């Protein structure tokens, strides 16, 4: 038999103070105009991805409709035979 428990004791997490002043100083070197330009580029990129996804969904939807039509056609042929 084991003399120690299988589950180790959990030790408390030591609280850490965050220094927000350093973070503000680093971010202040970027101007608001640059941030806006970066965000606009991100938005354009995401809109492009969204457009591609919408195109893929439309293609898949057409394929599903074709397959459903073929399946219905096969089912009607089998039921008449």
What does this entry look like structurally?
With 81 residues, this protein is mainly α. It has a domain at 31-80. Helix content is 70%, strand content 0%. It has 2 helices and no strands. It has helices spanning 20-27, 32-80. The protein starts with 19 loop residues before the first helix and ends with a helix. The mean pLDDT is 80.
- Give, in order, the helices and strands: HH
* Mean pLDDT over all positions: 80
Largest sheet geometry = none
The total beta strand count reads 0
DSSP strand (E) fraction? under 5%
Distance between the termini: 72 Å
Q: How many helices in DSSP terms? A: 2
- Amount of helix: over 70%
Using only C-alpha atoms, the radius of gyration works out to: 30 Å
Structural class by sheet pairing and helices: mainly alpha
Note the overall shape. Answer: flat
Query: Stretches where pLDDT falls below 50 for ≥5 residues?
Result: none
Labels describing this entry:
81 residues, mainly alpha, 2 helices
Summed up, what is this model?
The protein is mainly α and 81 residues long. The chain is built from 2 helices and no strands.
Question: Helix and strand layout, with pairings?
Answer:
Blueprint: H1 20-27, H2 32-80
């Amino acid at each position: 038999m084991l003399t120690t428990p299988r589950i180790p004791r959990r030790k408390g997490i030591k609280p850490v103070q965050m220094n927000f002043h350093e973070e503000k100083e680093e971010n202040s070197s970027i101007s608001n105009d640059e941030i806006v330009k970066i965000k606009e580029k991100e938005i354009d990129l995401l809109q492009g991805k969204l457009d591609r996804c919408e195109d893929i969904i439309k293609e898949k939807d057409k394929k599903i409709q074709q397959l459903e039509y073929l399946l219905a056609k096969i089912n009607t042929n089998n039921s008449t035979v």
